[in-house]
Amino acid sequence: MNEVQFNIITVAVIANAIFVILATLMGPIIAVWITRKIDAERARTTRKLDVFRAMMRNRRMHLSPDYVNAFNLIEVEFQGVEPVERAFKDVFNHMSASVSQPDWFDKFRRLTTRLLYAMGKNLGYEMEQLDVLEGGYNPTAFGQLEEEQATFRRLLIEVLQGKRSLPVHQGPPIIPLQNDSSRPPQESAPPSVGT
Question: Model-level pTM?
């Protein structure tokens, strides 16, 4: 074996040893880095799913706190997803329009449907926009309860602002409709002093 062949073999052995040492040191570091990247992506997808599920779960109850909170997180969790960002902006801009417009609510539902569809598509769900628009269960009582609460709040605010008065009825005491036998009989009030 001549000296050139010996030098080539020596360089190859040294290079091999360096690569083994680098692989031994860098392998775990690269594995941890890859694992962290995968975990970060998984966490981001989970957050997106949480927002999407909250929006879908409450898609017929736009004033529910869960829906509003999820809606406000769309900008953060779907950042960089162009179709979702565009649909979100359309809904957001429409919400600043006057609610008194005749077709405001119908347009709001259509825009919200497009937003949910874009979110679902980004997350890998295969669904039709019509299913999103027409789907979801919201008992009539929920809508009636929201309407009654809104009416009550509006009337209470008018009373507190002095725009409306509280009607006061003076007359005999109101007698309960049912005779509740589990209650003891009511005693009459003692006569007031000075009568």
Answer: 0.60
**3-state per-residue secondary structure call for the chain:** CCHHHHHHHHHHHHHHHHHHHHHHHHHHHHHHHHHHHHHHHHHHHHHHHHHHHHHHHCCCCCCCHHHHHHHHHHHHHCCCCHHHHHHHHHHHHHHCCCCCCCCHHHHHHHHHHHHHHHHHHHCCCCCCHHHHHHCCCCCHHHHHHHHHHHHHHHHHHHHHCCCCCCCCCCCCCCCCCCCCCCCCCCCCCCCCCCC
Using one digit for the tens of pLDDT, what is the confidence trace for 69-98? 999 999 999 999 999 999 999 999 998 877
Q: What is the mean pLDDT of residues 152-156?
A: 87
